[in-house]
Amino acid sequence: MSQTENQPVYAEQLAALLEKAGRGEWAGLPKLKGWRFDVSEGRSVSLSIVDNKLGSVYGPATARDSLGGGLYLIWDDEKRSNGSIDRLTVPEFEMRLREWRESAYSDDRAPDIRQPDACYPEVELYDRQVEPLVQGETELLFKILQAGEKELRGAGGVEFLDAGASASSSRRFLRNSKGFDVSYPSTMFNYSFYADSLYGNGYSKRRLAPEDELDRILKDVREVTAELKKVGRFQADPAGSRVVLDTGLAGSFIGQYIGGNLSGSGVANHQSAYSLDDFKEHKQVIREDISLVVDGTRPFESSASRVTSEGVPGGRAPLVERGKLIAPALDLKYAGITGFPPTVGGGLYIEIDDEGHRQSLKELVGQVDNGLLIYSVLGMHTQDSSSGRFSLSAPRCLVIRDGQLEGQVKVTISGNFFENINDTRSRFGWDPHEDNPGMEMVCQVVVEA
Fold first, then answer.
1. Who wins on pLDDT, 128 or 2?
2. Considering the entire predicted model, what is its pTM?
3. How confident is the model at residue 449 (pLDDT cuts 50, 70, 90)?
4. Could you give the count of Cα atoms lying within 13 Å of 317 in the half-sphere of its Cβ?
5. What contacts 92, CB < 8 A, 6 or more positions away?
6. Per-domain boundaries in the chain
7. pLDDT tens digit string along 177-199?
8. For 35-58, how does the pLDDT look when each residue is reduced to its tens digit (9 = 90+)?
9. What is the arithmetic mean of pLDDT over 209-216?
10. Residue 4's pLDDT is what?
């Protein structure tokens, strides 16, 4: 049965059991004062190439049914519990309820159950064309991996190829004790190729990829991998070298150093570079041409969202607008603590006011006379985001000489990203197939032996 036809049987059963707990129908347990849950039921199909073996014992074709989620309980004595949901939650409900009670905790700042909103945004999350793949028509997934093996191993000279393709369909059910009741279907479609442990690229959205997308991605993997196999030479400038962060890496830097300091818990607990007063005063913290926005309304994006698990409607909300702090990223608890509204669900996106003259990433690279194009770094999660400082090994770099790529070098880059994001020399370049831009900046570079 497809996800559009699924009836919310499990959700109804779970809600009925929680309502019984609200009436105190289990001996030795206090009543539930309130509850909410978020559970998804679905099916996924995946294929893989591992060590160059399509559908081998290393990466067999698999189909998997899943059901899982989480719940939040408020007991009559104001204690709270968080729990996970799986297929056994309903048949083992009394045992689970007692376990949740044993792990109950006190938190004076914990949120109440949210009243339902009048409406929730209609966001495109479901592509009917994905459904046949999930139900067993996997020919397209095989064709994608076979095309990758032919193009990369055959014509591209790739020796070791790891690749995967998958499709999934699910239905999400959200309920709470105050009448909140939302459910909707969604799909995902993915494929990726990683060549010779050097470079990878892929597609991941909630709808089937356009027909020409596979050719574009395979061409990118083939060409970049070939460049990374060449030996480059680079002379670092002691005063600072120009580096271009590829789109994914630039997003990681901004997510770590700017997004990481927008966390509501970090701000409220004084663990962020920004204070709550900074947000109240709309302090200017980065260049005025840069904004950061949470957006859950972009159709078919993996981060698209109609509603958060706490019942906050999806939408679009700036956290930093034209370089000024607007609001931290807040769940219900920290919204209550800080006094700001809770944040809508969605992904974090970079917006650049370029006065209508958007520069491509290719153009950005073409304007660098002596620098590096960096695809990945090691140890980003170990960096201190509140200080802005970084020192990272970058094993996948291509030398840029007079706008042309000239082979790989391994380097260590260091600097302070807060300074980089405010530096007038820092520029952005867009790949039309990516949601966020690449970034050129100046930092210290040490070439590794």
1. 128
2. 0.90
3. confident
4. 19
5. none
6. 9-220, 229-253+357-447, 259-352
7. 999 999 999 999 999 999 999 99
8. 999 999 999 999 998 765 665 534
9. 95
10. 41
Q: Is 281 exposed, middle or buried (0-12, 13-18, 19+ CB in 10 A)?
A: exposed
* Rounded Cα gap, residues 446 and 267, in angstroms: 34
Taking every pair of Cα atoms in the chain, the longest distance, rounded to a whole number of angstroms, is: 77
Written as six digits, the tokens of 266 are 């970090």
Query: What tokens does 299 get?
Result: 């159709």
Return d(Cα 205, Cα 215) in angstroms, integer. Answer: 17
Rounded Cα–Cα distance for residues 296 and 300 (Å): 10
- Both structure tokens of 419: 């300074």
Distance (Å) of CA 336 to CA 59, 117, 272, 340? 47, 17, 18, 7
Superfamily of domain 9-220: PmbA/TldD superfamily (3.30.2290.10)
Is residue 227 within 8 A of residue 219, CB to CB? The reply is no
Q: Which two tokens stand for residue 311?
A: 């019942």
Tokens read off for 165: 């393709």
Element (H, E) at 139: helix 139-148
The two tokens of residue 166 are 């998958």
Least confident stretch, 155-169, 190-204, 270-284: 155-169
In contact, 374 and 413? CB cutoff 8 Å: yes
Q: By C-alpha distance, which of 45, 15, 49, 9 is closest to 32?
A: 15
The whole-number pLDDT of residue 355 equals 82
Q: Are 236 and 447 in contact (CB under 8 A)?
A: yes
